[in-house]
Amino acid sequence: MTEQKIIPSEVKVVRLEEEILAANDVVAAENRELLRQKSVYTINLISSPGSGKTTLLVETLKALRGKLRCAVIEGDQQTSNDADRIAQTGVPVVQINTIGNCHLDAPLVQKALAQLPLDEIDLLFIENVGNLVCPAGYDLGEQEKVVVMSVTEGEDKPIKYPLAFHLATVMVLTKVDLLPYLKFDKDLCIEMAHRIHPGLPVIETSSYTKEGLADWVDWLLKKCA
Prior knowledge:
The protein is an alpha/beta fold. The protein has one domain (about 40-225): Rossmann fold, CATH 3.40.50.300. The chain is about 40% helix and about 15% strand. It is globular.
């Protein structure tokens, strides 16, 4: 049998990645401590592009008006389109453009935190760049990771991108008003999510019919309490 040799450049890549994640975790811990001192509960929203994450967030902010003081850090590769939509709700929002990078990291979030009135915030949403892979691996200093998935995606997303679902505290299934028009097996999707994360709570929502929105808001209120 031919002996396989480890290529030195591959070793360097692994070590570099480990060093990057270690440095990120140091800053994430600083972010978490700052947010704890300011009593700001922080949620990292992770999803693939087109899941309806921003629309859900807009409706959530409207529903929380007068109940919690909210703010948003908005991550995108380009444009401020989503941040502009968030700003229309009246909450403070900071846009981060990653310019090609597929995720937010703790240093970027740290810079954004410096631009927010943390003493006037109860709940901070970090809307990550649309991607189910890289964002799951980076701690930003949040208390919770929430994975958002729509019924217009494949039922097997949880087992194809397991880390995001494994680390999430709750899964929000969006666009359920479209179920009658799609060949989407909701029960199979939830079963696959539970293969990765047994007992993972699933909240079914529609930003248009408002189905499940009260359950989602109630979950947030309980977390912040």
